[in-house]
Amino acid sequence: MISDLLKEVSSRRKRAGRRPTAKQTRRPCPLKGSSIMRQIPVDTTTAQVMAAGPAEAKTNRQTGEIQTDRETGAKLMTVNVMFALEGNAPEILSITVPEPGITGELAMGTPLALTGLIARPWDNEFNGQRRHGIAFRAVAVTSLAAGQSEAA
């Protein structure tokens, strides 16, 4: 599933590098110069999701400062998860989550529930190299082990 999204983004980037047709040059891009980003909701109902390690503070690579949510001011955390859909190989995803959205212990292998997971394609150019990928963001990450241990 995630691999399919990366392939789609990659193929769009390749097509974007081709010379535009006459029809394409006549229409202006509605997103050019705007800050609108495409957000793709990710259905996690049939996925097995487990923690791949503890949550870590998300930092700016250049300044080392801890990043915060633009709307709420909450500290942002990065949670690495193993995401597996039936019939597909598991993938490790790094998901950005506001700190208040993390509940329960996120030890390695802990089953998790992801609330409001979205995928956001991105691309940039750095030192003449074009890079692209998919960023993941969730409203909340909840440990399912906490509920099981309380019930026992």
What report would you give on this structure?
- It is a single chain.
- With 152 residues, the protein is of the alpha+beta class.
- It has one domain.
- The chain has helices spanning 2-16, 22-26, 145-151, and strands spanning 40-41, 47-51, 56-57, 76-85, 91-98, 102-103, 112-115, 118-126, 129-137, 140-143.
- Strands 1, 2, 3, 4, 5, 8 and 9 form a seven-stranded mixed beta sheet that branches.
- A hairpin with a 2-residue loop joins strand 8 (118-126) and strand 9 (129-137).
- The longest helix has 15 residues, at 2-16.
- The protein is globular, with a radius of gyration of 18 Å.
- The two termini are 35 Å apart.
- Residues 1-32 are annotated as: Disordered.
- Residues 12-26 have a biased composition (Basic residues).
- Residues 1-11 have a biased composition (Basic and acidic residues).
pLDDT < 50 runs, ≥5 residues: 19-34
Summed over residues and divided by their number, the pLDDT gives a mean of 80
Order of helices and strands: HHEEEEEEEEEEH
Strand content: 35-45%
> Count the strands?
10
Number of domains: 1
Radius of gyration: 18 Å
Overall 3D geometry?
Answer: globular
Proportion of residues in helical segments:
10-25%
Total DSSP helices: 3
User: Largest beta sheet, briefly?
Assistant: 7 strands, mixed
Assembly status: single chain
- Structural class call reads alpha+beta
Protein name: Regulatory protein
